[in-house]
Design a protein that fits this description.
Helix content is about 65%, strand content about 0%. With about 260 residues, the chain is mainly α. The chain starts with a helix and ends with a helix.
């Protein structure tokens, strides 16, 4: 239970099994007036209540006055028959853990249902035969639970219906088409729906117009680029024609000079 407490202090989740185990521990250790499981308050499970196996765990009221609770030694408890000192240590630890769990779970909605039966059990414990330290611990825990349960009851409020104005069910005017006119067919009796339909149609028209203009611009730009390319090609061909003409003239002069030399 101590290990569960350390983890749940971080996760803030409810572990009712740990609280039930501690409650059963208190029932097994302390003297009380409950005889059967049916007489126990609450609905927590207690399968070993008043069983022959758990009867030796009850504190001996004749030797409790001189016992001072100490830190519980679980290894010693598991190794042999528990002594009265070990029982007192366990009871002191169980009461302390119940208080720590109560402080951790005090903000839960079900805190009242969880700890109200535990407080009822603590009130019916025979404290006269317990040691002074155990009696003080039990009294302190009872007072703390009484205070926490009081605050929880004060903070709890009954469920209420929704405070806001109920949302009315929308009612629509019936639509009768008595004409084949497209304009009149598009006139919806619901003004908001009619305006929304007009906006959708306007959006479609604007979108089509924008796409058409973009296509025109793209076509115009492609024509301009094609014209520029044609001008570049024409200038290139003219330049190459002049170069070839110059080369052919020089070649003709060279052949004429070669013929003159051959005649001479």
């Amino acid at each position: 239970c101590t290990l569960f407490l350390q983890y749940e202090e971080l996760s803030k989740r409810l572990v009712p099994e740990a609280v039930n185990f501690l409650t059963n521990t208190v029932l097994h250790l302390v003297p009380h007036h409950y005889k059967t499981v049916a007489s126990l308050p609450g609905s927590f499970p207690s399968p070993d209540f008043r069983s022959d196996m758990c009867r030796p765990l009850t504190l001996n009221t004749k030797v409790q006055s001189n016992i001072i609770p100490q830190k519980a030694n679980l290894s010693a408890l598991l190794s042999g028959e528990p002594t009265e000192q070990a029982k007192a240590d366990l009871l002191f630890l169980a009461l302390s853990l119940l208080g720590r769990y109560a402080d951790m779970y005090k903000s839960l909605e079900g805190f009242i249902e969880l700890y109200d039966p535990i407080l009822e059990i603590l009130k019916h414990v025979d404290t006269a035969s317990l040691a002074e330290a155990l009696r003080t611990q039990l009294t302190s825990l009872s007072e703390s639970l009484t205070r926490l349960l009081k605050f929880s009851r004060q903070a709890r409020e009954p469920l209420r219906l929704q405070a806001h104005k109920p949302i009315p069910i929308p009612s629509y005017i019936p639509k009768f088409e008595t004409t084949t006119s497209n304009y009149l067919r598009r006139q919806d009796p619901d003004h908001e729906r009619n305006e929304a339909s007009k906006l959708r149609n306007q959006y479609k028209q604007e979108r089509k117009g924008a796409i058409r203009e973009l296509r025109k611009d793209a076509k115009f730009l492609a024509g301009v680029e094609q014209q520029k390319q044609k001008e570049k090609d024409r200038a290139y061909h003219e330049r190459m024609k002049r170069v070839f003409g110059s080369i052919e003239g020089e070649r003709a002069e060279e052949k004429a000079m070669e013929r003159e030399k051959a005649k001479a």
